Amino acid sequence: MFRRRESVPFSFVAEADRFRSNVTPPPRQRASRSQLAGRSLVGLTLIAGFAGSLLFGLPALDTDRTPSHSQTSEASRHR
Questions:
Q1: What mean pLDDT comes out for the span 5-20?
Q2: Choosing a second label site near 43 at 20 to 30 A (CA), which of 2, 20, 21, 58?
């Protein structure tokens, strides 16, 4: 298959698809214990926040319950 070359104003852009580096990147450093503990605490905090919002939010979304007290103003009661 032949690719049609289009004119590119800069030669390094045209040669970029042919260039392959022989330099390997340095290996990634492992996370320390304090970094792992911090990440796990952030994760646990997020999970606890979601669980708490569900725990306190679901009763407010319940439509089957009727309120035990009626919310009428005092002026409408003495009509």
A1: 61
A2: 58
